[in-house]
Amino acid sequence: MTRSTIYRPEHDEFRTLVRSFLEREVVPRFPEWEKQGLVPHDFYLAVGELGFFGLRAPEEFGGSDLGQRSFLYSSIWTEECSRAGVSLGGAATHVNLVMPYILALGTAEQKQRWIPPMVEGRLMGSIAMSEPETGSDLAGMKTRARREGDRWILDGAKTFITGGINADLIVVVARTSDHDNRRDGLSLFVVEGTAAGFARGRNLEKIGLKATDTAELFFESVELRDDALLGEEGKAFSYLAQNLVQERLGIALGAQVSAETALEITVDYVTQRKAFGQPVSSFQNTKFQLATCRLEIAAGRALIDLYMLSHERGELTAVEASMAKVYCTELQNRVIDVCLQLHGGYGFMSDYRIGKMYTDARISRIYGGTNEVQRGIIAKSLGL
Ligand SMILES: Cc1cc2nc3c(=O)[nH]c(=O)nc-3n(C[C@H](O)[C@H](O)[C@H](O)COP(=O)(O)OP(=O)(O)OC[C@H]3O[C@@H](n4cnc5c(N)ncnc54)[C@H](O)[C@@H]3O)c2cc1C
C-alpha cells in the first residue's frame, strides 16, 4: 500500500530471500521464543550463515564488504521482521550497533579476534550504556574503570541491556576520568561474557518485545587487559553520538513499517467485521480515521526514504536522525492506537496481532534516547 522509492533490483532479490527465511524459520518458532523470553543463541548461527551479520564487514573477516551501503540491506531485515510481526531479539543491536563500533574503532588485532565469530553468529554483542540510576543523562553514569598497572579494573552496573542474556561480548561505557565537561572522560571497553567478576541479572519481564532478552549486567572488579579498550580513552561520548544516528534511524524505520502494517491489517479487519448490519468500513468515522493514518504514513515514508538515502551516503546528521525517530515513532503509536480502537474488543485480545503491536510499539518513544531527549537535540539546532 505504501511505496518505498529507494530500493533497487538487487535489494528486491535480497528481500525475497529474507522474507522466505523469516516465513520458514522464524514465524513458526516465534510464539515459543516469546514464551521463553529470548531467541535461542544457536539460532543466530543460521542467521549468520545467511550473511546478515556480515553485510558491513570486510571480506577478510568473512563479510560482504558493503560498508555504509549495508544499511539498506539491514533495513530490509528491519522491514521484513516488522511486517511478519517477529524479531530476532538482540540481532539488530549486534549488527547495527556493536559490530560498527568494533569495525570503526577496533585495532587490526581486535577486529581479527571478534569480527569473524560475530559474522558467523557464534559471538553475539550488546551495548551497555544505561544504568539503574541514569539513562537519559548518560554523562552521569557511575560505572568506572581505573588503571592498575597494565590492567583496567571495571566496576558498576548496567540495566535494560538488549540481548544481555545472549551476549558474549558487551561494549561497556565507563568513566575513566573526571572533567568539568562531564562528556569528557568516558571510554568504551569490550567485556567478554566469560570475564571473572562479570554477572548477568535476570531476563527482565517487559510489557512488549517478549522474544527479546533484556538484562541487568554487573561488573565487580572485572580485570581487563589494555586491549579491551575500544578506540581512544576518554572519547566515548563522541563515538556514541556518531553511532546513535544509525540506531535512531533504525528505530524510526521499524516504527514506520509497523504503522504501515497496522493500517493494512486494520483495513482488512474493518472490511470483514460487521456492526449494525454493515461493514465497520462503511462508517464515515472509519474511513476518515484510516484516511488520516494513510496520509500521515505517506509523509513518514517520504521522510524516512529521504533520510535512509542520505545515511547510505554517510550524510545524515544527528538532528535529522532525531527528527526521524520522533516523527516515525509518534506516528506509529498514533496509528496503532486508532487501528486498535477500530478492532473494538478484539483489539484488546492477546491473540489479535494489533494488541501485540500496541504493546510492542510503546518502547519506540523511549529507547534509543527518549523522544523528549530528541526534542532537546532538535531544539538545540534552532539555537534554543
Ligand atoms: C526494552 C529496552 C531496551 C533497551 N536497550 C538498551 C540497550 O541495549 N543498551 C542501553 O544502554 N540502554 C538500553 N535501554 C535503555 C534506554 O535507552 C533508556 O531506558 C532510555 O534512554 C531512558 O532512560 P531512563 O529509563 O533512565 O529514563 P530517565 O532518563 O529516568 O527518564 C525519565 C523521564 O524523564 C524524561 N527526561 C529525562 N531527561 C530529560 C530532559 N533533559 N528533558 C526532558 N525530559 C527528560 C525522559 O524523557 C523520561 O520521560 C533500553 C530500554 C528498554 C526499556
Structure, explained:
There is one protein chain. This protein has helices spanning 9-26, 30-36, 43-49, 70-84, 91-105, 108-120, 236-272, 284-312, 318-342, 353-361, 371-381; strands spanning 125-128, 144-148, 151-162, 169-175, 186-192, 198-203, 214-225, 229-230, 274-275, 278-279. A hairpin with a 2-residue loop joins strand 2 (144-148) and strand 3. The strands form 3 sheets. A 4-stranded mixed sheet has the order 1-4-5-8, covered by helices on one side. The protein has a 4-stranded antiparallel sheet with strand order 2-3-7-6, with no helix packed on it. Strands 9-10 form a two-stranded antiparallel sheet. It starts with 8 loop residues before the first helix and ends with a helix. It is globular and about 80 Å long. The model has no long low-confidence stretch (mean pLDDT 96). The chain contains 11 helices and 10 strands. With 384 residues, the protein is α+β, with helices and mostly antiparallel strands. The protein folds into 3 domains: 9-123, Butyryl-Coa Dehydrogenase, subunit A, domain 1 (Orthogonal Bundle); 126-233, Butyryl-CoA Dehydrogenase, subunit A, domain 2; 238-381, Butyryl-CoA Dehydrogenase, subunit A, domain 3. Flavin-adenine dinucleotide is lined by residues 93, 126-130, 134-136, 160-162, 206, 209, 214, 363, 366-367, 369-370, 372-373, 376. Flavin-adenine dinucleotide binds at residues 93, 126-130, 134-136, 160-162, 206, 209, 214, 363, 366-367, 369-370, 372-373, 376.
